Model the fold of this input.
Amino acid sequence: MNTIIILIIAAAALIALAFMLGMVMARRAGEKKVAKAEERAAKIVAEAEKEAEVRRKEALLEAKDQWFKEKAKFEKEINEKRNEIMKQDARLREREMALNRKVDLLNTKEKDIVTRDRNIQTRERAILHKEKQLETLIAEQNAQLEKIAGMTSEEAKKHLMENLEAEARRDAAQLIKEIKEKAERDAEKEAKNIIIQAIQRCAADYTVESCVSVVQLPSDEMKGRIIGREGRNIRSFETATGIDVIVDDTPEAVILSGYDP
Done:
């Protein structure tokens, strides 16, 4: 009986030992599975991280490429706008220069108009002054005509020519003085030439006939002075001398007609 008990105890011990060995082996097998699972999980995580890094880099490169494209597009638009602004600025400067030239031209024309207006006013004042002098001269000549009654046609003509020449010389001297003070150089030279020609014409030869004499005059202006307003000078001369003064369309000349040669 003791043998049987020993055998039973031994068998129980063996069973317990086998159970423990089984537990140890099962534990070790589980640990290996866990380790493999952990290793596989770590590998999956590493691969996922690597793929995520690759995708992140790809996304970053794609974003950079898109940024460079947008930057190039923006710079192109900026350059186009800058060029357009520069062209517009050039056109504006050109228009401004053209306007400035027009303004300068208008200012020059305005100055010319003002100068011409002043010259016209000066000439008008000179004409008024001359008209007053002419009226005084007519009055003086009318008084002189009363003194030459009874002269022959030749004497009357000579006296008239002397008076006209003296008057022309006085007018020339006065006109030269006024021109020197107020006229431009070209106008002054031209006026002097006209005055010289007028003085020379006063001494021109004239034709004499037995009863009719043609008196050459410096200008039609002088002819108008002889006629006077409404012919008053002619009537006064004819009354004082008895010589007829004939005024026709002959330029720069009048005709004296008398019965006493």
